[in-house]
Amino acid sequence: MAVQLDARPPVAPAPPRPSRAARLSRFDTRYSPYLYIAPFFLLFGVFGSYPLIYTFWVSLHDWDLLGAEHTFIGFDNYTQLLADPDFWHSVVNTLGIFVISTVPQLLLALWLANLLNRQLRARTTWRMAVLIPNVTSTAAVAIVFAVLFGREFGMINWLLDLVGVDAIDWKANRFAAWTAISAMVDWRWTGYNALIFLAAMQAIPRDLYESASIDGAGRSRQFWSITVPLLKPTIVFAVIISTIGGLQLFTEPRLFNSGTNAIRGGPLRESQTVTMYMFENAFAPHYNFGYGSAIAWLLFALIAVVAAGNVLLLRRLGGGVRKEGD
Amino acid sequence: MSRIWSAGRLTYLALTLTAFLSIFPIYWMFVVASRTSDAMGQVPPPVTPGGSLGANIARLFENTDAYFLTGLINSAIVAGTVTVSVVFFSTLAGFAFAKLRFRGRNALLLVIVATMMVPTQLGVIPLYMLMTKLNWNDRLPAVIVPALVTGFGVFMMRQYAGQAVSTELIEAARMDGCNTARIYFHVVLPALRPAAAVLGLLTFMTTWNDFLWPYAVLNDPENPTVQLSLRALSDGYYQDMSQVFTGTAIATLPLLLVFIVFGRQIIGGIMEGAVKA
């Protein structure tokens, strides 16, 4: 680098008065970026964030569709909800379906990703085959699965009968209904998660495995000591996505049940999720927007709590496998 | 490559079983859709297509509980409009966030990422009230307009534009006197095309598939989306199962066609997104 011997500031030539074109171009570079991001913020502001804030305001009111007055009642909707057995029933349903769908789903996805991560013939075809459930219509699949899980003529009961198991009334038994709905969710999402895990697996340097196998580690040892720990960030990502999706479950249980009690998830609310309970209260038949909004906020809180709990749990489980600071 | 990576016979067996389980419910949907209604009660259940598809389709389109044709047309309008809009606005904003400098850029990007975390349910009730005020209830703008932009799209395009659009090229274009809008159309958009295609496919599939929000806001049974037609069919008083399955098969068909044609790109998009997340 040249040493500056002369301490005086360099003499700059007086800037020429910018031409019209130059001023226009300055204006363009400085302000046009805002123009490009404005549509998102305008539309999201009106149809995304405004409802989010307003929903909280509504939840503090006795807000009936038909009522002319919307009385401010503070947190009454919330206290009423916390003492509402039907609400807690829907929370238990949601958590139950979430647990019995997510745990096998992610384990299966890991296993499937591990299979797909080998040297395969017709690689793309296998990947498409495992992803195909994910690109079907949820509503259509829910209807088809409701028939597969039918009591009288369902194919599942027919298969169970072949191996000597008595017919199960999938809709009338609470745990059976959870299982059937979890089966739909797993069918739809296992392949998707497998591809996400596969992408992360392919980023793991192969020499790690080579040196491990020189050290005498078998295939399953390598899987649990190298693949799974290095996949942890991706697993956390998948768990959070599954938590958000799983706790919002609506289409599958709604269409698994049909007829008059559909939004209740069956006559005894066997498979009513929190979102269904919110719909039941906010729209037909009750049209109680205040109560419905309070349910929406408690659902949000539930998602946040479960997601945070999952992250903490995963951190603990993986503790000591990886070095700190990654 | 070392031996541990090779796929043995068991691998293929397990994958074949998985593929069978993945495809069977869809296949079976088409089987029942092509048979008469007594297919449901047969033991063992039939697993080959029958010859009643045409008759089932005819009954389905005449069914005044479902308004299936209206549903199909509405879904095509909604998914088409939303896809074009999301791709356009996402590439525009993604380009700005990746390649242009402006005050508040990082904070605004953070807002966009945060919007991806919020469950849609939280806004359903006020959004419904807003639609009532705008007099959009039971009409298509109610499902189209809130979906015209997504945080996911902007974020995805921003990630992609960062590496796919060369800064030198943008500067060269600016030297040549291009303004930013011209740069977007002539330099950025062509470079973003592969990712924009994936975003378009994912958006089309999500929108076509959406059930919750249309279910809340489109209550007029004569003006449904196709997923609402399916609900009307499955909730009907009589259960003509072959007709219902014809409906589910037709509602799934556009998604399957998109997937068969663009499957490679969709898989690539999902896997790429995963690594970056």
Automatic annotation (TrEMBL), chain A:
UniProt record similarity statement: Belongs to the binding-protein-dependent transport system permease family.
InterPro entries registered for this protein in UniProt: ABC_transporter_permease (IPR051393), MetI-like (IPR000515), MetI-like_sf (IPR035906)
Annotated keywords: Cell membrane, Membrane, Transmembrane, Transmembrane helix, Transport
Organism: Micromonospora kangleipakensis
Superkingdom as given in the UniProt entry: Bacteria
Gene Ontology BP annotations: transmembrane transport
The keyword Transport is annotated on this UniProt entry: yes
Gene3D superfamilies: MetI-like (1.10.3720.10)
Keyword Cell membrane in record: yes
Major subcellular location class: membrane
Bilayer topology term: Multi-pass membrane protein
Bilayer-spanning residue ranges: 34-57, 95-116, 128-149, 230-250, 294-314
PANTHER family, sorted: ABC TRANSPORTER PERMEASE PROTEIN (PTHR30193), INNER MEMBRANE ABC TRANSPORTER PERMEASE PROTEIN YCJO (PTHR30193:SF37)
Annotated ABC transmembrane type-1 domain residues: 91-312
GO cellular component: a single term: plasma membrane
Any matching Pfam family: BPD_transp_1
The protein, known as: Cellobiose ABC transporter membrane protein
Subcellular location, record wording: Cell membrane
Automatic annotation (TrEMBL), chain B:
Biological process terms in GO annotation: transmembrane transport
Domain of life of the source: Bacteria
Keyword annotations: Cell membrane, Membrane, Transmembrane, Transmembrane helix, Transport
Keyword Zinc set for record: no
TM spans (from-to): 12-30, 66-95, 107-128, 140-157, 183-205, 244-262
Compartment(s): Cell membrane
Gene Ontology cellular component list: plasma membrane
InterPro entries: MetI-like, MetI-like_sf
Transferase in keyword set: no
Residue span, ABC transmembrane type-1 domain: 72-262
Membrane topology, as annotated: Multi-pass membrane protein
Major location (coarse): membrane
Family to which this protein belongs: Belongs to the binding-protein-dependent transport system permease family.
Protein name: Cellobiose ABC transporter membrane protein
Organism: Micromonospora kangleipakensis
